[in-house]
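Fold this sequence, please.
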Amino acid sequence: MAFELKMPKLGESVTEGTIGKWLKQPGDKVNKYDLLVEVQTDKVNTEIPSPVAGTLKEVKVEEGQTVPIGTLLAIFDTADGEAAAQPSAARAAPAAPSAGPRASVPQTDAPSVPPPTPQSQRSSGPTPSAPEPRAAARICSPVMRSTTSATVRK
């Protein structure tokens, strides 16, 4: 299976890039994320990684050429890498539509949690997990308490 590598968008206002140096040559085996080519723009110089594993089949743009974003840079043969993984993924995909009949079966995996009750329905007594509104004032040191009360009076 062939994969086409196109000049990626390298910035918001960048419209073209110059091929600096090819780091891989036609016929080279390439792993996913291997660095392929150096690209120079008016804003950034970067190295483009391979998005697939396979063999670099053909380079379409030579070093030193300036091309717009989206231009075909190279072609990869992915028959030995990505294509082998794709059929197994394609076989797994048809299993998903069979989930339709299972949708009518009630789910019992989820724990039963009662919905939260509004404040007005809670008991009037203090709850042990929630501190009283003035609890913070009780834990403060006398210095903090006087500073806090002075601030409140202003």
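The two ends are 77 Å apart (CA to CA). The domain at 2-86 is CATH 2.40.50.100 (OB fold (Dihydrolipoamide Acetyltransferase, E2P)).
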